[in-house]
């Protein structure tokens, strides 16, 4: 029972630290954030912080690693799916669900003080499988065309994600995924569908 209480306390403490950290990252770059300031924001003492992290950069690295693992878990069934089970909509829905669950760090990553290299690493995780999926839908397209299409889709999806997060995710995951998919598949024709 004591161990469960300790695990719960650790989770709560890490959530407080993460929340304070993302709030501060919204205001300033990581190199301007001190452990003292973070601890004050989180309402914890420095010893508690150092019990979990070496420094601010270790905190950021652990948060990004955790999100990368979550993202890989989301992609795993998609990357292993074969044939008609893998559709662009399923990919998009699963990705948006993962991003919504990590909305705090996504908002910071995409913000002015975010780690753009981390965003790029997430985008690259599923690139090959997405290219395979697109190749099945666009059989006449060359590899180069698909790569350009993927780059275009990623940039547009990031823009949609930024807007969706900034508005507090008003649409559910399925709605935003469907909208993204319609824009990807139909371009400007999406506006003529009356959605």
Annotate the secondary structure layout.
Layout: H1 2-27, H2 35-42, H3 46-50, H4 56-80, H5 88-101, H6 103-110, H7 116-125, H8 127-137, H9 143-166, H10 173-186, H11 189-192
Structural overview:
By secondary structure, the protein is an all-alpha fold. The chain has two domains: 1-53, Arc Repressor Mutant, subunit A; 63-192. It is built from eleven helices and no strands. α6 (103-110) crosses α9 (143-166). The protein is elongated, with a radius of gyration of 19 Å. The termini are far apart.
Category by helix and strand content? mainly alpha
Percentage of residues in strands: under 5%
Spatial shape = elongated
Mean pLDDT: 83
Number of helical segments?
A: 11
Helix content: over 70%
What is the end-to-end distance?
Answer: 52 Å
Order of helices and strands: HHHHHHHHHHH
Number of domains: 2
**Poorly predicted ranges (pLDDT <50, ≥5 residues)?**
none
Major beta sheet, specifics? none
* Structure summary, number of beta strands: 0
Radius of gyration: 19 Å
Brief descriptors of the model:
195 residues, mainly alpha, Arc Repressor Mutant, subunit A, 2 domains, 11 helices, 76% helix, 0% strand, elongated
Brief sketch in words of this structure:
With 195 residues, the protein is an all-alpha fold. It has helices spanning 2-27, 35-42, 46-50, 56-80, 88-101, 103-110, 116-125, 127-137, 143-166, 173-186, 189-192.
């Amino acid at each position: 029972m004591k161990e469960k209480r300790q695990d719960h306390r650790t989770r709560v403490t890490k959530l407080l630290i993460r929340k304070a950290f993302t709030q501060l990252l919204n205001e300033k770059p990581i190199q301007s954030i001190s452990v003292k300031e973070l601890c004050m924001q989180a309402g914890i003492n420095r010893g508690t912080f150092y019990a979990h992290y070496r420094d601010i950069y270790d905190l950021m690295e652990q948060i990004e690693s955790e999100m990368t693992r979550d993202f890989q878990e989301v992609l795993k069934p998609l990357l292993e799916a074969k044939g008609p089970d893998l559709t662009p909509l399923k990919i998009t829905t699963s990705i948006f669900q993962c991003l919504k669950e990590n909305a705090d760090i996504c908002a910071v990553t995409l913000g002015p003080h975010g780690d753009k290299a981390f965003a790029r690493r997430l985008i690259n995780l599923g690139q090959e499988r997405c290219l395979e999926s697109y190749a099945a839908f666009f059989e006449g397209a060359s590899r180069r065309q698909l790569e350009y299409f993927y780059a275009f889709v990623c940039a547009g999806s990031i823009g949609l994600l930024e807007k969706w997060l900034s508005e507090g995710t008003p649409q559910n995951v399925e709605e935003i995924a469907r909208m993204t998919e319609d824009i990807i598949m139909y371009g400007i024709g999406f506006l003529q569908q009356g959605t």
